[in-house]
Amino acid sequence: MFLKKFIFIIIISQLLSACIPISGVSPSQKWSYADLRSLSKPGDIPPYYDLIAVYTRNAGTDFQIRLDFLDLDSTPKVDIYLALDTQVGGTDWLPLGIKADLQWDTLLVLAADGSPQALKPPGKSPISLSDLQPRHDLIPRILRDPYMDNVVVSLNRASLAPPQPIYHLQVFVAPAGENLVVDSLGPLSSEAFPPPQTPVLLAFWNTFPAFTPAQALRRWDGAHTGPFGERHGLQVLLSAVRRNQVPVILLDLKSPASLSALDYIEAFPKIRALLDDKLLVLPDAVPDSLIQLPVETLQPATTTLPGAESTVMGFPSYENSLPDWAQSRAIAEGRQISLRFGLQVGRILYTPYLTSEPPDRYSLIFTPLNENQPVLWKDWILIPLPSMAPQFQPSIDGPTIDLRRAMLENAASGEPGNPPLIILGGDLPKSAWGDPESAEMTLRYIANHPWIKPLNIDDLMSMRNTVKVMDFSPQVLPVQLSPQTALVPSCSSLIDQLNPSCSFPRNAITQAAWQAYLALFASLPQNPPITPAIRTGFIGQIKEILFAAGWAADPVPQITCDVDPDQDGQPECILASKSIFGLIELDGARLAYLFALSPTGAHQLVGPSTQFFINTSDLSAWDTTGVSPKDPNSSPGAFTEYPHPVDQYTPTLATDRISFVNIDSSLTKTFRLTDQGIQVTYHSASWVTSQIPLAIDPWRRFDPNWGNQLLYEKIEGGWAWGYQDGPRLEITSSSDLGFSPFTASRTWLNLPENPNADYPPGHFLPFPMALLELHAFGDYQVQINFSP
Length: 788
Prior knowledge:
Beta-galactosidase, Chain A, domain 5; disordered N terminus; 7-stranded beta/alpha barrel; 3 domains; single chain; Immunoglobulin-like; 14 helices; alpha+beta; six-stranded antiparallel sheet
């Protein structure tokens, strides 16, 4: 009886010793940084030979080994020898003409052509590969992934000894069919601590320059807009971020114009979800409208990134920048608008130029620097804008070989545990990061290679103890402003009403002038050399808006053509009552602006398209007045005739109206204010095509759900257009009126851009405009009635 019990105990003990606990990690689960055992600098060999990392883990009942290559071809070109030391004893002999650096008891041979083998040394010392004996109890399972450039070997842990091992291994790489070692890694322990990761920051600017529905759709999910002529846009990048869980920084997405357009295309649910998951960082942004040159034109400085040559931005020229008060106003209003759209404000700032005293509320600032690493200046961490070096752009095969080599060099080039930072990204519309294949494959590569660490918001805010201290004070002192902008904070000029510290009336029209300035100098998809000169000429229209703001503060009736609000040396006409204000330019006899007062405040009714966006698509058509007769979607004001909008008219003033006659007396226009708005009477000897741009309270486009509030309807004799809760305009005429609101393409914005689609004309109008077109002959009238 005792003997039976003893035998039973022995059997149970053996069975228990053979049981291996199942690991909580699934063999198909994503590899983690904790699995990384060794990382190698890139070698001077072909990328498909270059073994760069080894991982090990227990996954279920398997022991898995992963081998990363710099670039793994779809057709195997290498034989891999993996020497395993799992127990006492073994040999260091290898069938490769060299000896291993450990005593192995199992050799895995993963041939480029043929089945994988598990071999063991014979009782005597081997002298050839044929001397090794197969291990029939151990069958390696191989998974090659040429897209992620790795090979995974899975072994049944029950066949390895001991059952709960700390293994040692060494890997050798040889050309297919040759006994020649071209690379190796190890020996290393299966429980070795992971080597340092290489930190990577993905940051982009010009992320969503959208001033029209067409631009919003193109920059969100455009057709044939990327560097490879394929689909391209912010939505493409964000979708890849979501799928691969790789965080990115969109430096200027919180600019008011971008937030307004994002709200209009209903993109905020996706944005907020990424923010909640810490996959998106949105700094507060100083609009690059505060400098006349876009970020990418700043003087580059060549510096050395570990392992590669890289270009980072130098300090910009401040000759065309606004003073500090303008930066402060832009930041403050940007924060307010961000909060309206449900976005939190934080302690990170993006600014295209650095002042001597950045705002105290920020601890981390993205800005152009002559450095390629973050620095601590005073109490701020400064992070240089990302490089646009071509060799670091993503590709349809993932990161370029140059970028992979640079990241590997970077991991080994810093202090232990603190490698330098690699900053990637750049100007999104010009980069391949918005391309579907390039973004997907590159972010997937980053996500699936744990030796790369993409930084999120928590990582950014913990950088203070890892950056070097530097004094930039001599380099960042503000310099004298350009005379072109004439924006000195002296409170002596009309445009100084934009300065909150100056004692000028504050009303909605003043706000419209500020927003017009930001739109005027905003970065455009293209910035041709003539653009700065054109923009300078438009400073005058901001002064005209401010002139109207002065009237709103003290609404004195007047009828005159002896004023020059835009200070261009040419007179303009003012037709104003206590409730309606119109400004008429003599070139074209066009109503540039129409404003109204009501118990609810000041309202804008009419404005030129250039108040919101300068369309530079056909610069040959522009003249110094900013009139583009070849662009049907660009209007310099109401009652502008084509094709001769710049003809000079002669005014005649009466007690309640102003009449204008063109040079050959073939056309007369008479403007008369009414209790509800303005009436315009035409007398023409020929057919006339005229436009009326409507811009009702444009400041409301910075409120949530603003696009759904603007409604239009056909009424008797014309059209009605306005906000659901007011104000509202009714435009009627004795002739037919065509109507094109920017909202006409709203339903199209839920789909990717279709280059073959026949989008309505309003699709190309600036937010938040509508355009009426009048085609008539002889005597006719147009009435614009306003109701608050």
